[in-house]
Design a protein that fits this description.
The chain is an alpha+beta fold. β14 (264-270) and β15 form a beta hairpin. The protein has helices spanning 7-18, 36-48, 52-75, 102-110, 128-144, 167-176; strands at residues 80-86, 92-97, 119-123, 149-154, 159-164, 185-189, 199-202, 214-217, 223-227, 235-237, 240-242, 244-250, 253-259, 264-270, 277-279, 282-283, 294-299, 303-314, 326-330, 345-348, 351-360, 363-368, 377-379. Mean pLDDT is 88; it is low at 1-13 and 15-34. The protein starts with 6 loop residues before the first helix and ends with a strand. The strands form six sheets. It has a six-stranded antiparallel beta barrel. The chain has a five-stranded antiparallel sheet with strand order 12-13-9-8-23, with no helix packed on it. A three-stranded mixed sheet has the order 1-2-3. The chain contains six helices and 23 strands. It is 22% helix and 33% strand. The radius of gyration is 29 Å and the shape is elongated.
Length: 382
Amino acid sequence: MTTLTPRPLLILICLAALAIPAQGQVFGPDDRLEDGLLRDALEYAADNDVDPVEAQRRLELQPVIGALDGKLATDEDASYAGLFIQHQPEYRVVVLFTDEFARDRLSQHLGGSALRDLVVVRRVQHSLRQLHADQSAARFLAGQLGVRADAGIDIPGNRAELYVLDRAELDDGLDARSMDLPASVNVVQVDELSAVEADIYGGLPLRTCTSGFSVKRTSNGTKGISTAAHCSNSQTYSGTNLPYQSGAYYSQYDVQWHTAPGFTVVNRIRSSCSTCTRSITGTVGRSSQSVGNYVCKQGKTTGYTCGYITDKSYQSSSPSTATATYIRVSRSGVDLSSGGDSGGPWFNGNNAYGIHHSGIGNDATYMAINYISVLGVSVLTN
């Protein structure tokens, strides 16, 4: 007698397996050993109501399907109209051609492929080559009319699509110039067009240091990113220059800030992992920070580490005019500072505490966040 494991229990077993490290491997408290394909298969299984084994089989076929797509686009260019994966109600690979003899040619491409029993062939009107040409033509015409538009290709629908904010504006422009869109083009009115989204925030790797907190100029609201003043004034993020605005490196100050053209400045910091962020919604000044406070930081070299305030009146040897206002943090056995961490954010929960200043062995110091006001900026908290 065969006993079948219910799917919910099977998913739990698979998830548990993801959390068990291989023998002999030791991980820190924030490490996760993850079988990427299995984890994705569990998500797919839940989304498509199939068991994880079937889900993983389907995901393993995707590179094979992609290779077939590329080969047909090259070898069958005149009649190939693309393919798509059908997930429901049955899992199929639907291949589109414009001519009736393509089915026979396709069998030669499949050979003994694992896809042979999954492929369905359909005949359509427009080749993929034609759809690409019509897409480009439609996008060009919209541009000539001064109409902002995105464009795409709907493979299952065998049509090019032009996305506009106002269909009437496009139609009026075409009528005024006696123009027509290609026959394969479907115009779709949408609420918004694509927009480049590239965020910048605290805890990210800059050219020589780490970004601190997002800031805004008090006088006019101009937004930017902070770091330590002892870092180079010439900073970049992801290859893009961040124009220097101002800085202060004396007495209690070690801070500079830069604008970030091309990026969206948001009130977040990276924390705890390479893809983890948290919002910064408040600040805690030096007077409200106490010895024994538990605080954390993010640096591009040592990453996310936490420790305890041991001194809030530390006087650093650099700058030479440093006052006894820097805050020292320590935690036994944990390296809190290394080259490149300078400028990074110190925080607790969703509150900004300071900007990384220096290292003393494994200990670290930071400038209290309230001193950022010397630059005429404040921490972005919404």
